[in-house]
Amino acid sequence: MQKGDTQSVSEDICPGFSSLAVHAGQDPGTWLTDSAVVPPISLSSTYRLQDPTGVAADTGEETWIYTRYGNPTRSCFENAIAAVEGGKYGLAFSSGVATIFAITALLDAGDHIVSFHDIYGGTVLQFNRVASKLNIETTFIEVTDDETTIKNAIKPNTKMVWVESPSNPTLKVVDLQKISKIVHEYPDIFLVVDGTFASPACQRPLEFGVDIVMHSASKYINGHTDVIIGVLSTNREDLFKRLKFLQRTIGSTPSPFDCYLANRGLKTLPLRMEKHQQNAMALAKYLQSCPRIEEVIYPGLETHPQYEVAKKQMRGFSGMLAIKVLGGKKEAITFMKSLKLIQFATSLGGVESLIEHPASLSHANLSDKAGLGITDNLLRLSVGIEDTRDLIQDVDQALKIAIPEV
What we know:
By secondary structure, this protein is α/β, with parallel strands linked by helices.
C-alpha cells in the first residue's frame, strides 16, 4: 500500500457523518508535509524513489512512484470517500463514466449484466455500445426489487447486477438490502449501486450488503459544478485490488487539482444536502398543489410509490425531483425557458438549481422513453440551495407563462 492509504480517522473516532466528511483522510501525517492542515495539491508527476523497486526498505510498503499509480492529494480524497461511505477502500477516476467503465472492465468476454431500464443514459450507452463490443451482454429489466423478476433475468453467465436508487430520471426507489440478499445467492455475481442521486450523506449502500457503490462525484460530492470526477467505494479487498489495477492501467485518474476541489466540496456535503432537501421538499409540496402540474415525483413525499422503502434506507431524500407539467413538450420547454433563477442546463447536485428535459437530452438515446415514464412533459429538477421563496416564485411565474389557462 502507498503512504496515505491508511484511514487515520474512522467512525470509531468520528461517528458523526459531518465529522467524517471534514476529517477523514485529512491527517497531515499522510502527505509529504506534516504541518499543513489542508491537503496540499501535489502536482508532481513523479517522485524520488527510496529503492529501485519503489518499495520502502523499512516498511515494505509501496512508496509514491508516479502520479498515475498514486498521488498524495488523490489518496486523501479516496480515503475520505471510503470513510463517508462506511467502506474500507475508495478510488477516484477522471469522471463518472470512467468509473462505470472501470467497473465494467472487471467482466470478461461472454459475461452478462442485469440492470434497470430507468438509469442514467450514459450507463445504458456504455453497456449497449461499449461493453457489447467486448461480447458482454446486458439484460434491462423494470426498476424493481421483486425476487422473481430479478432471478428470471439472471443467467448462468451473469456476473454483475447494476442498480440505481433513486433512479435517473424518474426517482424510483428499490430495497437495496432485499436486492443484495437476492444477488448474493449467486456467489459469482457482484452488486453495484450508482448512488449519485442520493450522495453518501443521504444513503450508504454498503451498509445494505452492496459490493460497490459509485458516484459521479461531479454532482453532490463536489457540489459546485466545476469538476468532472468519479468515485467508488467497496469493502471487498478482491474487488479493490482489481479495480486499483484497472485505475492504473486504463489511466483514467483525476488530476490532483480536481481531487483537491472535490475533497474540499466533500467537507460541506452534509450542510449542503440539508438545504437541498429542505428546498426540494418545499418545492415538491408547492407543486403538488399547483393545477398546472400533472405529477410530482419525490421520494420524500408520502405519495411516492416507494416512500416507505426510501424512509427506511435513506437518511435524507436528496434534492432531486421530477415533475410532469400539464400538456406536452411545448409547455415543458416553454416553462424551462421562462425560468429566471433556475438554470436550463444538464447535470445536477450543484449549489445552483438546474432543470433539464430528459427525453431531449440525458435519455434521448433510449428507444422506449414513454414506456419508461420519460414522457415529453417530464422535467428533472436539481434543486439548489437558494432561498426557498425565490425558487417557488420563479417556478410559479414560469408555469403561468407556459400554461396561462387551467
